[in-house]
Write a sequence for this structure.
């Protein structure tokens, strides 16, 4: 037989020689160790893994490893038996996709046989609905050849199926599971005699489903595939966004899958808006527009927001992350004054000719000294650096808002800053940061101005997740309340503009948050409790009917006057790390340093000074997970839908299914 | 507020004012103009709030005249160690507020204030991992300005270079903090 078993090359050559000897192979042949897009086993009962809307672009790729005897001679891709592209190792192209193909021989990951090549066909697209077979054929210089077969599906759009949506508003509460929503409702609206006294905006959406959130390589995802799976209908690996995994070390050359923003911009001329309370390079915002195998490659990510705005139709970008937009002149001949820039060559991007030709993507450059902020302005983006300049921006054609150095401060601290009861935002140097609902309103105003082609807007409440990781209950609940106020703005827009679909969902659940009950004591009594389990837990945590109905007075600004009410709601965590729990809100945005609040192992963090030995408050809650932060869970998350096509979002479905539902609503319509 | 206001103060002055130890001058960085203003060997107190123009303007950080004057000289900082999920050998980050560096999920999307200072241990301790320490710390060393890439992917704008003696004291205090476990009741 021509095929030979392949083993990871730790002992590959030795094993190969042994196998060759023991099986007495007449002829060695190359091996295709990876075929992209990845397939499920080609079984009738398996769910097709890679699915695409008609005409949605994606890359074909194969990693071909030679046998010990002969180098790779050619790699050819065929779909449904018809050759799509054939590449010769010596570079002579022999196909119509010539400019879109690439054969990479260097910069590969370790552990591969010498002479391995990665062959790509960029920006392939197929418009015929149904299952398609994908076959790659590799030949070597000795005449040996082998093939590998996979499949992918093109999902039909039912055309003329009813009224279509022009605009998509995708509200993402990062880490927001059912408990997060419930806790926000209890705090913001109150319950009496078993009834919620009012609803969150997201509660009023008429259709709700449950979303399965796992990634390509785990039941527990992170925010990169968490957003990417929604945005392009395909599974991605943890840490990766808009791409499939590959065998090169370059993080910007991975096989791409076209995002909804790119697909609709290309086919319909839609615009794109991205609004977040996180650093704008972070995974959730980036996984709507930028393709990378490393969610941390900040310089290249922010550069591509601008450089490839012709692919996404980017008109609005708002959030934190100013540190990426300032020139960094490390090692340059043009020294810059100190400005806090985080740009660096190692996280920047340059694209190969095949990606440029296939996708129309910009070449990129290693330019840590780029003044990206000035480049955005030159490209016609109005710039807002704080809430005052945001409110004064009017209705520009394009808008960039950078309100913090990295992540924006959380609602708890922004609100207390506005009330004058906290100096946290001033300490950070950004005392006038906008609230997410204001950012959302203004984004909608800009996107809807002269809006003939429609838009895709993603709004993220980012620190629901970040504060859940820190197990800071008061802060993530307020983040959820702030996010819901932004949802209300989206709902109002959709009511005024009925050709709009609004989705409220989460990328995953974070921390296993649970509403365990309420305090049996007043706030004053709670603060007087001694720091041990009997006092802090047993005489405080009211379960079942002892929880009754926690009441929070809401101030005129829409937020609780304080979260430290008598008999306050109590939150537990199923995916927690070690922490000391005192139930009262933390004046600082993260765990109080006066106490070994969330140490690593308690061994390492207990201070040596005898003054502090008994100074900490709270009782030790031992964590389920190692480290000092809570983690994501695999729990399904609720998704609520409002507006045109909302009826599609019922039942239990995969996060990748959401992409196809949105495609149907915009391209084909829903009755 | 239920905070106990006692603070965990690590006073680690490594200035050459301790004549008895006869330490050599600490840093290879040429002293900035501020050096002339200081008594020989004395460290200047520098607050985080004094480093940059606050509030931060529409573009990047703007160093204050005081910060620029102190470049290359001995300064004393009081702040909190930013706790890290994955510690990096030979350095810690000092911030005006107790914060966490981003975890695996967040990477460089973090809550680190712009004025955070990257504190480098002396070359002798370059491989030493400092465990997360809680409470206020007072550190003295040479202030270094300018963008520099750190091994963990950050680009630091401000650095405090601890001299050998200060670095040694920090390492010993950290080891003591780690070595004396006190179980809570």
């Amino acid at each position: 037989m021509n095929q030979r078993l392949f083993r990871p090359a730790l002992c590959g050559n030795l094993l190969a020689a042994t196998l060759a000897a023991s099986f007495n192979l007449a002829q060695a042949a190359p091996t295709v160790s990876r075929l992209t897009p990845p397939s499920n086993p080609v079984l009738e009962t398996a769910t097709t893994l890679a699915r695409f809307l008609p005409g949605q672009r994606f890359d074909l790729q194969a990693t071909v490893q030679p046998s010990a005897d002969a180098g790779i001679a050619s790699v050819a891709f065929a779909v449904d038996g018809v050759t799509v592209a054939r590449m010769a190792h010596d570079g002579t192209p022999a196909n119509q996709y010539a400019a879109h193909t690439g054969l990479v021989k260097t910069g590969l990951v370790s552990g591969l046989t010498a002479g391995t090549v990665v062959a790509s066909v960029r920006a392939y697209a197929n418009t015929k609905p149904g299952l398609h077979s994908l076959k790659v054929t590799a030949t070597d210089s000795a005449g040996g050849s082998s093939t590998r077969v996979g499949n992918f599906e093109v999902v039909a759009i039912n055309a003329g199926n009813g009224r279509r949506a022009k605009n998509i508003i995708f509200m993402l509460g990062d880490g927001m599971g059912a408990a997060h929503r419930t806790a926000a409702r209890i705090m913001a609206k109150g319950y009496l005699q078993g009834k919620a006294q009012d609803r969150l905006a997201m509660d009023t959406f008429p259709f709700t489903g449950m979303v399965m959130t796992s990634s390509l390589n785990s039941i527990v995802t992170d925010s990169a595939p968490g957003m990417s799976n929604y945005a392009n209908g395909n599974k991605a690996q943890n840490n990766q966004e808009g791409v499939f995994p590959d065998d090169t070390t370059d993080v910007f050359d991975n096989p791409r899958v076209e995002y909804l923003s790119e697909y609709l911009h290309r086919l319909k001329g839609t615009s794109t808006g991205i609004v977040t309370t996180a650093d704008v390079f972070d995974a959730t915002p980036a996984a709507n527009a930028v393709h990378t195998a490393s969610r941390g490659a900040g310089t290249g990510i922010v550069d591509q927001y601008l450089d490839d705005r012709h692919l996404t139709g980017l008109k609005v970008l708002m959030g934190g992350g100013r540190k990426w937009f300032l020139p960094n002149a490390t090692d340059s001949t043009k020294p810059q004054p100190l400005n806090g820039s985080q740009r660096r060559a190692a996280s920047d991007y340059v694209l190969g000719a095949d990606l440029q030709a296939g996708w129309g993507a910009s070449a990129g450059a290693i330019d840590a000294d780029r003044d990206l902020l000035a480049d955005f302005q030159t490209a016609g983006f109005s710039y807002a650096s704080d809430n005052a300049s945001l409110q004064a921006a009017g209705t520009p054609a394009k808008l960039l808002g950078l309100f913090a150095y990295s992540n924006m401060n959380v609602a708890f601290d922004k609100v207390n800053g506005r009330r004058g009861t906290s100096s946290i935002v001033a300490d950070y140097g950004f005392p006038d940061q906008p609230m997410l609902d204001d950012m959302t309103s203004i984004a909608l105003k800009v996107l809807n101005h002269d809006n003939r082609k429609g838009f895709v807007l993603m709004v993220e409440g980012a620190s629901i997740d970040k504060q859940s990781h820190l197990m800071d209950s008061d802060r993530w609940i307020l983040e959820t309340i702030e996010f819901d106020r932004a949802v209300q703005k989206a709902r109002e827009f959709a009511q005024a503009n009925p050709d709009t679909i609004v989705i409220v969902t989460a990328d995953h659940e974070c921390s296993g948050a649970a509403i365990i009950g309420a305090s049996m004591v007043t706030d004053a009594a709670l603060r007087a409790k001694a720091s041990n389990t009997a006092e802090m837990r047993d005489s405080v945590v009211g379960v079942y009917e002892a929880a009754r109905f926690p009441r929070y007075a809401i101030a005129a600004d829409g937020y609780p006057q304080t979260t430290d009410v008598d008999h306050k709601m109590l939150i537990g965590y199923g995916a927690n790390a070690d922490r000391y729990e005192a139930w009262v809100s933390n004046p600082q945005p993260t765990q109080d340093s006066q106490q070994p609040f969330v140490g690593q192992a308690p061994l390492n963090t207990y201070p040596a000074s005898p003054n502090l030995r008994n100074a900490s408050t709270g009782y030790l809650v031992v964590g389920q997970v190692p480290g000092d932060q809570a983690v994501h869970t695999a729990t399904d998350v609720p998704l609520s839908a409002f507006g045109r096509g909302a009826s599609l979002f019922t039942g239990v479905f995969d996060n990748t299914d959401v992409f196809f539902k949105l495609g149907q609503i915009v391209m084909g319509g829903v009755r | 507020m239920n905070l106990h206001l006692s603070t965990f103060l690590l006073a680690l002055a490594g200035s050459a004012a301790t004549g008895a130890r006869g330490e050599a001058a600490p840093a290879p960085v040429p002293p900035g103009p501020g050096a002339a203003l200081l008594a020989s060997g004395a460290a200047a107190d520098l607050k985080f709030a004094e480093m940059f123009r606050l509030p931060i303007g529409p573009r990047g950080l703007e160093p204050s005249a005081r910060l620029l004057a102190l470049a290359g000289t001995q300064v004393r900082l009081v702040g909190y160690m930013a706790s890290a999920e994955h510690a990096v050998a030979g350095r810690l980050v000092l911030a005006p507020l107790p914060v966490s560096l981003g975890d695996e999920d967040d990477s460089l999307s973090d809550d680190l204030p712009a004025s955070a200072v990257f504190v480098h241990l002396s070359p002798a301790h370059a491989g030493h991992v400092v465990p997360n320490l809680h409470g206020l710390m007072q550190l003295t060393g040479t202030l270094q300005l300018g963008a520099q890439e750190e091994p963990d992917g950050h680009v630091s704008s401000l650095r405090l270079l601890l001299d050998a003696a200060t670095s040694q004291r920090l390492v010993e205090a950290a080891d003591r903090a780690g070595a004396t476990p006190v179980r809570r009741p």
Observations:
- The first strand of chain A starts at residue 31 and ends at 36.
- The CA atoms of residues 168 and 456 of chain A lie 5 Å apart.
- Chain A touches chain B through 88 residues (CB under 8 Å).
- The domain at 12-154 of chain A is CATH 2.60.40.10 (Immunoglobulin-like).
